[in-house]
Amino acid sequence: MSNEKDNTEVDADQQAMADEWASALEEQTGQAASVDFDELKDDSAPISDPKLDVILDIPVTLSMEVGNTDISIRSLLQLSQGSVVELDRVAGEPLDVMVNGTLIAHGEVVVVNDRYGIRLTDVISPQERIKHLR
Q: 96 and which of 35, 65, 77, 84 could share a cystine (Cβ 3.0–4.6 Å)?
């Protein structure tokens, strides 16, 4: 009984957070509208497929890459508070959105209620993702 109550509280918290994000994005763009997940379903690949159900709950790591650089171990050991490391990206260039180290999209940073988020600006096609895996 307590576990059901906890799940209900978590669902309410998640919905409240989603509403806050939608509201903040609407303020930023002036055009955003709240969308139910049912509206986002892709009817071409039904989720009820038992083969697909097996992998839907597998956790993956989603990360955003601002940039990178190569430095020597000597330079790495000399880093201290206040050090500046130059990256290979130009300011304003989109971030890379990676899933388990594979590029899936590009996006820009947004701030909603003092939390960082990312707005996807370009999603890599599945065919391109497969090419990069090989």
A: 65
What is the mean pLDDT of each successive set of 10 residues along the chain, which is 134 residues long? 54 70 64 50 58 84 91 95 92 90 90 90 86 71
Give 119's strand partners.
Answer: 108
Return d(Cα 54, Cα 71) in angstroms, integer: 42
In the chain, which residue ranges form alpha helices assigned H by DSSP? 2-29, 50-53, 73-78, 126-133
103 φ/ψ angles, rounded to the nearest 5 degrees: -65, 125
The answer to whether 24 and 112 are in contact (CB under 8 A) is: yes
pTM of the model: 0.53
Nearest to 47 by CA among 58, 36, 55: 55
User: Among 34, 21, 36, which Cα is nearest to 116's?
Assistant: 21
CB 105 within 8 A of CB 124: yes
Query: What is the rounded CA–CA span in Å between residue 30 and residue 23?
Result: 10
Largest Cα–Cα distance of the chain, in whole Å?
A: 58
**CA separation for the pair 122, 134 (Å, rounded):** 22
